[in-house]
Amino acid sequence: MATELALNVRRRSATPASGTNIRRDHVEVSKLVDIDLCIGCKACEIACKEWNDLPVEPSVNTGSYQTRPDLTPATWDLMIFNEVERDSGDLAWLIKKDSCLHCEEPGCLLACPAPGAVVQYDNGIVDFNQENCIGCRYCIAGCPFDIPRFDEETGKVYKCTMCVDRVSNGLEPACVKSCPTGSIRFGTKEEMVAYGEAKVSKLKARGFEHAMHYDPEGVGGVHMSYVVPHGDMLPDYELPEDPKVPGAYFGTLSGLRKLGSAATWAGALATGIFFLRTGRRRPPPEEEAVAEAYALEERDEAAATTSEPPDADPYGPAGDATPEGGEPG
Amino acid sequence: MAASFGRGAMTNHWKDFKNSDMFLVVGANPAEAHPCGWRWAYRARDERGAKIIHVDPRYTRTSATADVYAPIRAGTDVAFFNGLINYVLDNELYHEEYVRQHTNASFIVAESFSFDEGVFSGYDEAVRGYDTSTWDYEYEKAAAEAGEDSTGDERPPATGSGESAVDPRGFVRTDDTLQDPRSVFQLLKEHVSRYTPEVVSEITGIPEEKFLEIAELWGSTGAPDRVGAMVYAVGLTHHVTGLQMIRSLGMLQLLLGNVGRTGGGVNAERGHANIQGNTDNAISWEILPGYLGIPRPGMETLDDYIEQVPAKQLAMNSLNFFGSRYRDFLVSLQKAFFGDAATEANDWAYDWIPKPAENSSWLTAHNEALQNRLQGLIAFGFHNPAVGPDTNRVLQSLSNLKWLVAMDPLPTAASEFWRAPGVEPDQVDTEVFFLPCTHWIEKDGAFTNSGRWAQWKWKALEPEGEIKDDHWVLAQLYLGLRDLYEEEDGAFPDPILGLAWPYSDPGHPPLEELAKEMNGRNIETGEQLSTFADLKSDGTTLSGNWIYAGSWTEEGNQMARRNNDDPTGMGFHHEWAWSWPLNRRVLYNRASADENGRPWDPRRPGIQWNGSLWVGDVPDFPPDEAPDVGTGAFIMTGEGVGRLFAPGGLTNDGPFPEHYEPTEAPVENAVPQGRREHPTAFFYDGARESFAPAGGDFPYVATTYRITEHEHYVTQHVPYLVETQPDFFVELDPDLAAEKGIANGSQVRVRSMRGEVEGVAMVTKRMRPLRLGRSKIVHQIGIPVHWSYVGGKARAKSNANLLTPYIGDSNVRTPEFKGFLVDIEAV
């Protein structure tokens, strides 16, 4: 799945080597889901399946608009629907796109014992390389957002690739392309942060006093952030309130950062730290409860430099060939 | 809308939503049904702080993203809008200068008009119909004087060869103070005074405080520098009171000065492509292309037709453009149909136009089949039994036909009707032909969107196998008929043999040639016309649809343009595709400016007078006529202004909107001096017995709708989309579910007097029990269409229209899909 050769890798799972990129001109990319604009149409679900050649998985209506109860190895993008009564008595129908957040400090990668099964590119995308996957499912346990899914048949784990094949060819991810309202946005990390902050101000002016840009620090920030209108209702959106990289829970990560120069770290950390992970919305499978090791490496912070945003219009659907006013009739 | 403004189309367009301060969305679910266009409403909210108000029986994905949501009992929207009108008048929130300048508020109504006990004057219970001539204005001359001097005040036609007939009684009397008790303004005030917030709440189930919150918000758009966009769809149209619902919201918009303005208007959201284009091109039996009326029996000559059908000029300041140019448009249409065979000598082949004596609507056609009076039917992109109403009745209708042709890319509920659940194939004598035709993705052509933009599109896929274009089939059918007439003669051969068929490939006319013919050309020079102003009644021009004149000019296909420049910043995009009429992006845009031609709100001008010309949008007005001439903004009405009172002939169920209960309703009408049942709704033979009485075995209100994951029935053939909404389901509130012992996700059965369905129960707080008055609680049940016995998870009893009633509104026979009674139980 991953086109490792075509992209500069920042780090690989279980590999004591730093990134390969000596250049300093790369751009960090990010998606942003503006929940205020999301209508739950599921165009992104289908676009994801079509672009990634994922099979149809017959579903059953169990009394919800949600396509199925959960992500699967072949459903990497799922709209989650929750009905919540507000204190005001008004109903809120919370609809959230559930898919990989592409953490800056990816718990999956840090947990993975298989060299190169999880990679993080310089542009921030975290991708699984199934040919290196040994099916141990540590990544599932390591993910504070409960995203990766194990496929019994292939014995591998799968998740959103942020359409790394499209992005590396200058296109936006398929879900972004398909979004009719501009709820799912794509651009540089810097642009998305600017959009998120501006949108939060607007929401606050509209009376959403708890509006927030969800870009959690506990995982070093993410490459798919959310604008959340009801920031006081994160659990209802099925978003962890304070997600953390398991290792960071012990302050290890920051400690390692201080210690390290360009050197990398590979070390075994205490077992049992998975029990301390925060923000899981579903209990992990039993076999994941025991972890053996983390491979940690320091991030080359200088690599975080970003270039000027190519498109100053935060509303412009970046990379979308459809001009304004040309919405399909 | 035509009764209010002169044209029956969305006044504004999708991108114009970005200019709005507020949206009132009623009977529509744009977030689900029009997600691409609705983005502009969100843009207005982000950039202008606009508010979105949603009023609907169900809390939908539009409600989820709205600022204010109110539930409403299905079928009670007239009461809601009349209540808003009452609130706006009572609290003097209307845009007074606009109302004086651009509406018929000052017109005096004849003494013959009255309203009593829920019916208007002229009602005849025996025929369930009105003598609508009692709904008229008072004229300058008494009837006795009329006829002596009928042309004295006649305004010279503004353009072209038009004729402008003034009513023989002269112009309508007016009272500019609006104080005359017989003025439209005072009569309207009196009419809606019964719709107090308390009454509205009791009828609609909208809590009174919620109604007042909405009334205050929406009333604020009456300020000249504010503007609100009204948005509706078939949630209003699909009622026996549908036309009057749309009248009432249109009147509200006129009072608030929101029509003709960027960011305002009455925005009818059309369904799937290409509904607007179909409507423009006479998909409906009562019109010819371009909304020219179909002649009626008794109109024996073209002169009779021109005397009786077009609007008369009723006010000094009325341009009456449509009324004055009718002959030019009809003769040019005849020249497009019949070419050289239409001559002055044969009255431009006027005799060849059908003059239907009877209603020929969808409901009537299927009723004719049911009564064994129809032999065959061509279902052309059309799933009759699925789109209903009363599927069982439609299945019986089709079974009574001798033959049925179904033309579609994929099997449909029509092509497979003979093996529908409950139908015994060996009992059906109907011979069914299925002709696989290309999907729109497999051919070029144009779609006209809700906002009247005709956008050319190009074939994306080559058709597979031996599949043929629909227009190939139609051309072959015509050529075969023509050959038969030539060989064997037959009754009335003239229209068939006289039809012009000038295409380079007669068996498969190129769509480009059809589009050019629709635009029209000068027959003598062969040049494509650029405006309908150049159409003539002397046989020298032809146009297949006058409102499309300008779409394919000498400069080429204007619909294929893709320049998205927006020099005004108002989103007009005059060089992106082409919109009828004449590339005007906002209809009635003269009303966006005051009497001096200055925009009501300079920050978002529609058009404005620069001293010599109207600039901005393409003016819906003579482009160089100074504002001090005083010509009315509504050039398509005889009055020259928007109609708060619609005189007889424009509708047949009332000049003012009045709330009646749906034919199946759980309660009595709570309007003071009201009447329960719609006085003119049309019952077909034997259909009345299929209606449930109030207080009987069917206590719950049901409504049908579409959801975003599917497009009607065709997407049941798309596995990915079937995955996103796999099963037929029914939405109900938790209280009702508890009372009936129905668990979320379990199977339920819903029954009406006409049939039953079975599906998954979706128990949701999004459905709410409504409190009517002090004690009455009404539960509503939501039933999506999209499922039937064809495609996807095809199964029996999954089609919502098994439940819906077979009744038509009295104006256009629109069925009542949206409000009827059912019962529900666990399976």
Number of helices of chain B: 22
CATH C-level category of chain A? Alpha Beta
Instruction: Enter the CATH topology name of chain A.
Output: Alpha-Beta Plaits
> What is the oligomeric state here?
heterodimer
**What is the CATH architecture annotation of one domain in chain B?**
3-Layer(aba) Sandwich
Structural class assignment of chain A: alpha+beta
Q: What would CATH call the homologous superfamily of one domain in chain B?
A: Dimethylsulfoxide Reductase, domain 2
Most strands sheet of chain A = 4 strands, mixed
> What is the 3D form of chain A?
globular
Q: Provide the structure class of chain B.
A: alpha/beta
Round the mean pLDDT of chain B to the nearest integer and report it: 95
The helix fraction of chain B, in percent, is: 10-25%
Helix and strand pattern of chain A: EEHEEHEEHEEHHEHEEH
Which architecture name of chain A does CATH use? 2-Layer Sandwich
CATH topology of one domain in chain B: Dimethylsulfoxide Reductase, domain 2
Spatial ordering of strands, largest sheet of chain B: 26-28-27-33-25-31
Over all CA atoms, what is the radius of gyration of chain B? 26 Å
How far apart the termini of chain A lie comes to 35 Å
Integer count of domains of chain A? 1
Q: Can you lay out the helices and strands and say which pair or pack?
A:
The complex is a heterodimer of chains A (329) and B (827).
Chain A: E1 9-12, E2 29-34, H1 43-51, E3 78-85, E4 91-98, H2 107-111, E5 118-121, E6 126-128, H3 138-142, E7 149-151, E8 156-158, H4 164-167, H5 174-178, E9 184-188, H6 189-205, E10 212-214, E11 224-228, H7 252-259
Parallel strand pairs in A: 2-11
Antiparallel strand pairs in A: 1-5, 2-9, 3-4, 5-6, 7-8, 10-11
Chain B: H1 2-5, E1 22-26, H2 30-33, H3 35-48, E2 51-56, H4 61-64, E3 68-71, H5 77-90, H6 96-102, E4 115-116, E5 119-120, E6 123-124, E7 129-130, H7 184-192, H8 197-204, H9 208-219, E8 228-232, H10 234-237, H11 242-255, E9 266-268, H12 275-280, E10 287-288, E11 292-293, H13 302-308, H14 321-338, H15 362-370, E12 376-380, H16 384-387, H17 391-399, E13 403-408, E14 431-436, E15 445-448, E16 453-457, H18 470-488, H19 494-498, H20 511-519, E17 521-522, E18 541-542, E19 552-553, E20 556-557, E21 578-579, E22 607-609, E23 614-616, E24 682-683, E25 700-705, H21 719-724, E26 729-732, H22 734-740, E27 747-751, E28 756-763, E29 770-772, E30 776-778, E31 780-784, E32 807-808, E33 820-826
Parallel strand pairs in B: 1-2, 1-8, 2-3, 8-9, 12-13, 13-14, 25-31, 26-28
Antiparallel strand pairs in B: 4-5, 6-7, 10-11, 15-16, 16-21, 17-18, 19-20, 22-23, 24-32, 25-33, 27-28, 27-33, 29-30
Helix pairs in contact in B: 5-8, 5-9, 5-11, 15-17
